[in-house]
Amino acid sequence: MEVVSEKKKGTMKKRFSLKSIFKIIKIIALIFLLVIIMSIAYEQISRVLTANNHAPVGKMVDIGEYKLHMYATGKKSQLPTVVLESGLGTPSSYEDWRFVQPELSKVTRVISYDRAGYGWSDEAPNERTAEQLVEDLHTMLEKSGEKGPFLMVGHSFGGMISRMFVSKYPEESAGMVLVDSSHVDQELEFSKWQVYMAKVLKETGIIRIAGDLGFLPIHEKLSSQDIAVDFFYNKVHNANQTSELLNMMTKTANQVRKAEGKGFGNLPVFILSSANTIKEYPEWLKLQQSMTSWSTSSQNKIVSGSGHFIQLDQPNIIIESAKNILNQKQ
Q: Of 52, 102, 267, 327, which is most buried by a Cβ count within 10 Å?
């Protein structure tokens, strides 16, 4: 009897132990669920509270089905108008070019703008490929009464858009300054799964909480500006930005490659390449140097002491390059 009793005790202990484990698992799952719910609520409330925190610094231009925010400074003159094109995912063009635009505005007209789905601009219902982005830009310039020629200054992905613009509107183009520009042959791919997970992180508030803890994935000179931070939290990974991302190395790359194949004649082109980017990605130098083949009047400059965002780390290099081209047009 004693032996049986001990067996029963052992069985009971096992059952009690299993019940305890399941109970603990349920409690952990419940806590996790509550944390997620609270995080989602925090995200939604924060969006509502910050949605209208910042009045547009420029004007809203109706280009048809949606409006784009355009910020124009400087007087119109005989010199080309500078158009500043930001990279993919940059939350605010106004903050992105805040060291470059005021200086260039002292000598000519300068325009920065938010593509659809960024900053103060509306979201667009169409697919975001290079051709569509260039069409948006050109329509915005026409509707707002801005006349060329235009000197395109494009950072990163914005460099691809700039090349597409110059190819499509050569008679309205005065030159290009490519700022650590993306290349159609660079190794960069984004899967739908990666994009989906990024959206999950945003919608559940995890990105915002990480940022509050000091892990905001944007340049430090943007993360210190409320406008850029609010636009990042509220618009990152929206439908338009996701479309740009997924098309970048597929449809957009094919469109830009075709445009590059035509060449840019003797158009002045300054190619500014980050020394830090080259150090991190050795193949970057070769890709950057290959861009000089598109024009007989092009030059490549490696910018030391700068990361990918040269316009924030070494803005004077961009200002000097743009002025160099402007001086050629006098």
A: 267
Identify residue 227 by its one-letter amino acid code: I
The string of DSSP codes covering 302-313 is: EETT--S-HHHH
Element (H, E) at 57: none
Backbone angles phi, psi at 72, to 5 degrees: -110, 130
Is residue 84 left, alpha or beta, with left meaning phi > 0 and alpha meaning psi from -120 to 50? beta
Q: What is the pLDDT of residue 22?
A: 78
- The answer to whether domain 59-328 has CATH 3.40.50.720 is no
Residue 101 has which token pair? 């635009």
Which residues touch 39 (CB under 8 Å, ≥6 apart)? 204, 205, 206, 209
CB count within 10 Å of CB 142 equals 12
Instruction: Record the pTM.
Output: 0.88
CB 104 within 8 A of CB 72: no
pLDDT for 198-221, tens place per residue? Answer: 888 888 888 888 888 888 888 998
HSE, side-chain direction, 13 A CA sphere, residue 169: 22
Instruction: Please state the length of the chain.
Output: 330
Say which residues have a Cβ less than 8 Å from residue 90's Cβ, sequence separation at least 6.
96, 118, 155, 222
